[in-house]
Design goal:
1 helix; 28% strand; 12% helix; alpha+beta; single chain; 222 residues; four-stranded mixed sheet; seven-stranded mixed sheet
């Protein structure tokens, strides 16, 4: 067997290396992605008939307090919150700092009228924003308009922020809230501040309790 000289060995090695490099280049180039530039793929827009369902998300509901449909109250009336299950209506009343000092929810002199079904419970939350002390009474009145002492104008059936014996000079201060509740049979009542002279100065309104009313509401009369 003839011996290979050094130049021939070198040539064979170089040829093997070149073949290997060529095979590697072909393999790598065939698997490499082809750059086609900056292409942005946009998802199709959601159409109006497509919906997203989230079965694990629930929306809480409050079944105890109901807002009545507009068809069940007069056109000029506003609904009151109530709980039909226990026949309770909620009255949120404020001695407002934005009105004259003797007002309820910015009204005075009998402008604000609450209408409730007969025999329902009235739960009152009374807040005083005024610098003067005020309280909240419901009075089964026997006179057309209140005088300086509303206890002399009928029977006090509810007192919030005071008592039935100290209403003439006891109330809650600015920023305080008091609550009280009572059941009102059919009839016409006042709600008024009992502090001496406050109701006579305009701090009173009207509650009508009637079996002809099925949904609580209120009206502000001019």
């Amino acid at each position: 067997m003839a011996k290979l000289d050094t130049p021939m060995i070198a040539a064979i090695v170089i040829a093997i290396i070149l073949v290997a490099v060529a095979v590697y280049y072909v393999a790598v180039r065939s698997s490499a992605p082809i750059n086609v530039g900056n292409v942005t793929e946009t998802l199709p827009p959601i159409t109006s008939n497509e919906t997203v369902t989230t079965s694990n998300v629930t929306t809480p509901t409050t079944t105890n307090v109901t807002t009545p449909p507009s068809t069940s109250i007069p056109p000029n009336a506003k609904p009151l919150p109530y709980n039909a299950a226990n026949k309770t209506v909620f009255l949120y009343v404020v001695a407002s700092s934005s009105g004259q000092p003797f007002n309820f929810n910015g009204t005075s002199d009998g402008q604000l009228h609450f209408y409730i079904p007969a025999g329902w419970t009235v739960l009152v939350y009374f807040t005083n924003q005024e610098g003067l002390e005020h309280n909240f009474l419901i009075v089964q009145n026997t006179t057309a308009t209140p005088g300086d002492d509303v206890g002399q104008d009928g029977t006090i059936v509810l007192a919030a922020g005071t008592t039935t014996s100290n209403y003439l000079n006891q109330g809650i201060s600015s920023g305080q809230t008091a609550s009280a509740s009572t059941t009102l049979p059919a009839g016409i009542y006042w709600f008024a501040c009992g502090i001496s002279g406050h109701a006579a100065a305009g701090m009173w309104g009207v509650i009508v309790s009637s079996s002809s009313i099925s949904t609580p509401y209120y009206v502000i009369q001019s």
